[in-house]
Automatic annotation (TrEMBL), chains A, B:
This is Corrinoid adenosyltransferase. InterPro entries: CblAdoTrfase_CobA, P-loop_NTPase. Keywords: ATP-binding, Cobalamin biosynthesis, Cytoplasm, Nucleotide-binding, Porphyrin biosynthesis, Transferase. Pathway: Cofactor biosynthesis; adenosylcobalamin biosynthesis; adenosylcobalamin from cob(II)yrinate a,c-diamide: step 2/7.
Length: 203, 203
């Protein structure tokens, strides 16, 4: 419902009411702690949202860890941009998309090696935010042990934020998470409309 | 449904089939053009996704324009991080959230001034990607004329990407867009669980 542009007083009253609700909410929510955030679902924007949070954390002067569990054969813009930013520790697992390797053993080995990198970050409170990009896909394929992953996430430093992306987030991870967003496809140019995947927005 | 870790051959076959589908899709989708992408819905991650796409585009060496239509009173991490990145032209509209100003006329004026900045970007094909952060909120409050906005978006250079974020994307914008993601709240720490909004992930 759009508001009537002709009623500035009603508008001011509504805005004042909203402001009050926001203030109350902020006052009530005084529990300071690291957040476990999961971005899942089939819609576009999960990884880019995770990388946006990396940028935001860097803007606050935080040290950030990034571990990508799936990487395309294409050079990705995120990697080119973030790998050498000061304050970023950037790791990429293995050898391209799982449907490119076609070798389960190799994928499992790469995933386990990547999780060792994550474990070290999760044990180090100098990392203020850790992005585990496409971890859900590695869990989906059972390249990693879900219980071990959940235990390590729970045992992390109290103030550390972790962002997990990827379709098919396991139910137990959603239960453990503080904030979960599911991204729904309303329309997809690449899939629906025969538009080529575009560098910059897609790759 | 999780696959059985004990069946490496079936796994390799499935991955090969997926690879084939991906290749066919990429071959079919050869239409090179700028994409209009809308990130909407109540879930967390719309703006951060837009900023992730900014980072990705910068990683490809593209020039990027950012116009924020709503800005909190808090300094935001995105602004601190991106404002001085080479290749970024960063503008922030007006004076804080609309529920802080409580002055409709001032908000309309700020929105119109911000749209003039956008118009110049939309007329300049050196901008390869433009992020219009929280534009949907300005449209929702009718601070801008929707038809004018849609006309300007349609008249932009063929290869220019535009990303629009914010709840309540108008139906006509969704119709015009190439790709639309709706972000659904599954859980929200700040709202549901009394956890304070956290610098880095929330602010």
């Amino acid at each position: 419902m759009r508001e009537n542009a002709k009623e500035p007083e009603r508008h001011a009253r509504r805005m004042a009411a909203k402001q009050k609700v926001m203030q109350q909410r902020i006052e009530r929510a005084q529990k300071e702690q690291g957040v476990l955030l999961v971005l899942t679902g089939p819609g576009k924007g999960k990884s880019s949202s995770g990388f946006g949070m990396v940028a935001r954390a860097l803007g606050h002067g935080m040290k950030v860890g990034v571990v990508q569990f799936i990487k395309g054969k294409f050079s990705t813009g995120e990697e080119a941009f973030f790998r050498d930013q000061p304050g970023v520790d950037y790791h990429v697992m293995g050898q391209g998309y799982t449907w490119d390797t076609q070798n389960r053993e190799q994928d499992e080995e790469s995933a386990r090696a990547a999780w060792e990198v994550v474990k070290n970050m999760l044990a180090d409170d100098s990392y203020k935010l850790i992005l585990l990009d496409e971890l859900n896909i590695a869990l989906r394929h059972e390249y990693l042990d879900l219980d071990e992953v959940l235990d390590d996430l729970q045992a992390r430093p109290e103030m550390q934020h972790v962002v997990v992306t990827g379709r098919y987030a396991p139910k137990q991870l959603i239960e453990l998470a503080d904030t979960v967003t599911e991204m729904k496809v309303v329309k997809h140019a690449f899939k629906d409309q025969g538009i080529k995947a575009q560098a910059g927005v897609e790759l």
